Amino acid sequence: MERITIPRTIVNQLLAQAQASSQQEICGLISAADGIPTRCYQVENIASHPDTQFLLNPEIQIRAMKQIREQGESLFGIYHSHPHSPPLPSKSDTIQTAYSKVLYFIISLNIKGVLEMRCFKFQQGAYRELELEL
Questions:
Q1: According to the model, what pLDDT value does residue 113 have?
Q2: Does this model's pTM top 0.85?
Q3: Are 93 and 100 in contact (CB under 8 A)?
């Protein structure tokens, strides 16, 4: 299984965002320098059902992408949370997948007292899980 390493500082930021919005999916972008994740950019979720779906606010997403370029970094991943379900891609996640070259991180608040995060790559119409190392 392919392994992805992500700094604990970024993981902590993602988990804090998910906990702060425990009833709605949070979402955003992760940038990288030389293939190493460096920053996360929270983007407003404008989905019509934010408790079960996410949709990145295009205006904020474009602003974040510009900041990533200005930092000399690249888009590494897209993240979102599942407040009420396991950290596995849903049907709507699969339909909305727009970037095949980035990783998808899903944070779950579904497990009592324990936060769980998984990483996936979307290839040939399906998600493949990668091993996540902190």
A1: 63
A2: yes
A3: no
